[in-house]
């Protein structure tokens, strides 16, 4: 990777206060970096959990008149029938799977890792969890949608994550990724994985952002699915 200017800087990390026995990998939204979310997660951290907030590579984004900005994949439009960057989404998912593998090498089993993200990062975390062969502890999907939804078979998925726990959260005043996208996504998820494991929370008056109530729900989900082992 040395000398390759396409490589993104090292992730922002909130280390565990003691030996890390679990990890949360959280993917930021379009045009952002991992730093803001690492600070937000530091506010709800648990002592045995390591929080990893990678930074997306900088690339031109069609939606924003080809301006270059941190982005996990290209976004062409924001309507449900917009063309999608299939190759970019699949490549980004492979990069996230490599991050998970890295933590497994560091001694944290994949079933002690929660994948999460906001907006474009949440979309990527959902897609990755549904396509990976790594068994994960759960997914936190904030203000997002399921990319390449037509590429998934009708009905339940096979694979290691068909029982995965999902916390999906959305503001009811989101002007960028409308609540309808969240509602359609949760219905699709419930058809693919055990519907009893899918939780959908909405927040009154919240726009395309986060709030304290949502972060408390995220903390509760992480604490439930990544309990201390010692």
Automatic annotation (TrEMBL):
It is found in: Cell membrane; Cytoplasm; Endoplasmic reticulum; Nucleus membrane. Residues 11-225 form the Phospholipase/carboxylesterase/thioesterase domain. One of its GO terms (cellular component) is endoplasmic reticulum. It catalyses: S-hexadecanoyl-L-cysteinyl-[protein] + H2O = L-cysteinyl-[protein] + hexadecanoate + H(+); a 1-(9Z-octadecenoyl)-2-acyl-sn-glycero-3-phosphocholine + H2O = a 2-acyl-sn-glycero-3-phosphocholine + (9Z)-octadecenoate + H(+); 1-hexadecanoyl-sn-glycero-3-phosphocholine + H2O = sn-glycerol 3-phosphocholine + hexadecanoate + H(+). Keywords: Acetylation, Cell membrane, Cytoplasm, Endoplasmic reticulum, Fatty acid metabolism, Hydrolase, Lipid metabolism, Membrane, Nucleus. GO terms for molecular function: carboxylic ester hydrolase activity; palmitoyl-(protein) hydrolase activity. GO terms for biological process: fatty acid metabolic process. Its EC number is 3.1.2.22. InterPro entries: AB_hydrolase_fold, LYPA1-2/EST-like, PLipase/COase/thioEstase. It comes from the Eukaryota. The keyword Endoplasmic reticulum applies. Acts as an acyl-protein thioesterase. Hydrolyzes fatty acids from S-acylated cysteine residues in proteins such as trimeric G alpha proteins or HRAS. Acts as a palmitoyl thioesterase that catalyzes depalmitoylation of proteins, such as ADRB2, KCNMA1 and SQSTM1. Acts as a negative regulator of autophagy by mediating palmitoylation of SQSTM1, decreasing affinity between SQSTM1 and ATG8 proteins and recruitment of ubiquitinated cargo proteins to autophagosomes. Acts as a lysophospholipase and hydrolyzes lysophosphatidylcholine (lyso-PC). Homodimer. Belongs to the AB hydrolase superfamily. AB hydrolase 2 family. This is Acyl-protein thioesterase 1. It comes from Chroicocephalus maculipennis. The gene is Lypla1.
């Amino acid at each position: 990777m040395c000398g390759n200017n396409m490589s993104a800087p090292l992730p922002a990390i909130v280390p565990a206060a003691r030996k890390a026995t679990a990890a949360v990998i959280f993917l930021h939204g379009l045009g952002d970096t991992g730093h803001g979310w690492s600070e937000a997660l530091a506010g709800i951290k648990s002592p045995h959990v390591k929080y990893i907030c990678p930074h997306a590579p900088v690339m031109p984004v069609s939606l924003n008149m080809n301006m270059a900005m941190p982005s996990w994949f290209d976004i062409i439009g924001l309507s449900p029938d917009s063309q999608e960057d299939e190759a970019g989404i699949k490549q980004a998912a492979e990069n996230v799977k490599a991050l998970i593998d890295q933590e497994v090498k560091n001694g944290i089993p994949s079933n002690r890792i929660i994948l999460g993200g906001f907006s474009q990062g949440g979309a990527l975390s959902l897609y990755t969890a549904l396509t990976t062969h790594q068994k994960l502890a759960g997914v936190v999907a904030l203000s997002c949608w399921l990319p390449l939804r037509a590429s998934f078979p009708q009905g339940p998925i096979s694979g290691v994550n068909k029982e995965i726990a999902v916390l999906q959260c959305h503001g009811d005043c989101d002007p960028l990724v409308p609540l309808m996208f969240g509602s359609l996504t949760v219905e699709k998820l419930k058809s693919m994985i055990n519907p009893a494991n899918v939780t959908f929370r909405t927040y009154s008056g919240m726009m395309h952002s986060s709030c304290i109530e949502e972060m408390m729900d995220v903390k509760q989900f992480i604490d439930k699915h990544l309990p201390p082992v010692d």
